[in-house]
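[#protein-structures] MJ: dropping Type II CAAX endopeptidase family protein here for a structure pass
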Amino acid sequence: MRVVWQLLAVAAVAFLGGQGIAAVDGKPWLTLAVGTVTAVLALLVYGWVVRRTEHRSPVEVATRGAAPTLGLGTLIGIAVFGLVILQLATNGYYEFNGRGSTTGVVGIVGFMAAAAVTEELLFRGVLFRIVEERTGTWIAMTLTAVLFGAYHLANPDATLWGALAVAIEAGGMLTAAYIATRKLWVPIGVHFGWNFAAAGIFSSEVSGNGANQGLLDTAAKGPDLVTGGEFGPEGSVFSVLFCVLAALAFLWLARRRGHLKPRTRRADRPDTALTLPR
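AK: finished. structure tokens for Type II CAAX endopeptidase family protein:
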């Protein structure tokens, strides 16, 4: 039952935050404020519900050392997405038409902060972490990747290939970032950095959610398999390639640190709380 309580708690914050962001659509500074509040509140609620249902300190969101690891993750996310755009541009599939909108970036920061935090808490903090206790690292990684990809099928311009690409990219790279560090700050940073680079810098579509106006005015042209089409560059084979390489690097680090977990027998599973205590 703890997985249900934790999912409901974080999902409630994500829903309310999404409604708030939709209500201030077109107002960048308000979007930044609402998105930031949503992200902070989601972290606080996650910490609270983990304490209540598991009777432990939520070390995966401990604030000590959070800033540098969050910053590192953000830089990694921007760099990996930048490599995707570099490949598209050098092969003639991406063109730059000048400057975009500085004001629009403000709202994108808030929106992407809320999305990165709530999605990482739900899929890595709750689902992957708890499923891994039962099934081990590899099965949990596969199952949550499939769920994460399916989650993106609800987006306006979603495609089956785009969802599969997201499952491979995020289910691999972001989950591997969590496994390597056993903290949520790096995957949150990578998630935010990737999304911010896509929407806030290169004005690309993100996971089939429509066009964005970031710092640069750009346009993609070419086969959907290469550019991602209306789904955005996340549907590009270049994104799959670079995210898989990043995931392998994180998994190599996780193996060196002894963070990969085998499937546990029922008798070896920890005794966890099933209900909220009074």
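MJ: nice. The two ends are 15 Å apart (CA to CA).
AK: one more thing. The chain has nine helices and two strands.
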